[in-house]
Amino acid sequence: MPLRTLINELETDHKLRRIAARVSPELELAAITERSGKASDGGPALLFEQGAGHRFCVVTNLFGTEERTALALGESSLRAFGKRIHASLLAVTGQSADERLRALLAADTLQPVVNHRPPCREIIAPPDLSVIPALTFWPQETVPSLTLPLVFTTDPDTGQQNCGMYRVQIHDSDSATINFSGQSGGGRHLQAWREKNLPMPVAIALGGDPALIWAAGAPLPQECDELHMAAWVSGRIQTVTCGLSQPLLVPAEAEIVIEGVIHPGETRAEGLFGNHTGGYVANPAAPLFRITSISHRADPICPATLVGTPPKEDCYLAKASEQLLLAMLKIAHPPVRDLHMPLETIFHGCALIGVEDSKEGQGIELLQALRSSGPLQRAKLLILLDSDIDIRNPSLSYWRAINQLDESRVFIEQGRISIDATGIDTTRLVEHERVTLELISRRWSEYGLG
Length: 450
Description:
The protein is an alpha+beta fold and about 450 residues long. It has two domains: about 5-305, Electron Transport, Fmn-binding Protein, Chain A (Pnp Oxidase, Chain A); about 335-430, UbiD C-terminal domain-like. It has helices spanning about 5-10, 30-35, 65-70, 80-90, 95-105, 185-195, 210-215, 225-235, 315-330, 360-370, 395-405, 435-445; strands at about 15-20, 45-50, 55-60, 115, 125, 145, 150-155, 160-165, 165-170, 175-180, 200-205, 240, 250, 255-260, 265-270, 275, 280, 285-295, 300-305, 335-340, 350-355, 380-385, 410-415, 415-420. Strands 5, 6, 7, 8, 9, 10, 11, 14, 15 and 18 form a ten-stranded antiparallel beta sheet that branches. The protein has a five-stranded mixed beta sheet with strand order 20-21-22-24-23, with helices on both faces. The protein has a four-stranded mixed beta sheet with strand order 1-2-3-19. The longest helix has 20 residues, at about 315-330. It is globular and about 75 Å long.
């Protein structure tokens, strides 16, 4: 659904609060979001009407619960989201899960359409980043950041676009840094433009379809188009428009669009940024993004997310990606039945994997396959567990894993740990028989226990 539709639905359901008071973009807005989000129910989404000291509105904690994230993706729950992906992958042909997903997203019905009078062009503004409500979140941060940017780049040879989500820091009125990871779509594009000694066109969209915000950060295989993924997820064709100053297509429904270039080899040191490790990080040589144009809606709403010690709303976006991974793992590795990545370690790829009918040696083979390729290849911890264990119960899962620890079942390579905790003989587990349990259920009131 469109961003504004989601905001309206949350407000109607009393799951979004408007804040009319003027709030500083330096620490205050983040602290309000942090305190509100610590509520047992995840707190409401927050719409800051005075734009954190700017004339733009800012919305935070949109994805602050599994329920809200599922709603943004058009589903009743994230489990339902995963089941829909799995059923759709089964319905298309392909030798691998990656091929099936590419085939699913290749449908002509998912092609975006061009809007020549888009909402994101209602105001053509001077290329001045000081109007953008970038935020500082934690005390040692000195450079404000954009934390939900949709970053569009293109391959210089094929013209294929990529939409990724990377840390953006605004250093002055006409430049910012973008922290591409080397293996990301944007990172590969940057290297290709650098090898040609040409400036890379870049567009940053703020806002747009929440399904695209998720897709931009999802672990999609190469050559899977994020706009197509968002269209499939939302059931709505994405609308795009041509760049004002760069040869890129950008979301027509975006709230704000910033365009510019990255010149080959031009970098700048980032300021400190508080991230999910609970500490600060900084790239000493982040690519420097020089602004060429800015446009926005007449009344833009800038989405932002607080990053820090889990759980935060980025964790729930990652839980949606967990469902994509599970659907693809079931295709690639049929014994896999379930996947759980605890919030505290989800950004390290740590995963509990439930498997069925594991025979001697199969667990080791599966771990080797997961480590050889795919999104769990670099996970810091993988634990395989029999399907009798509820892998969403961490204490029970780790208890089973500890009881199965054996040097023949634990593999450590480059600091990454894999544990095969499968193969338990369930007939020898310490459990009461069903007959006894039925007996005490019938006589429970006789025992005076209610």
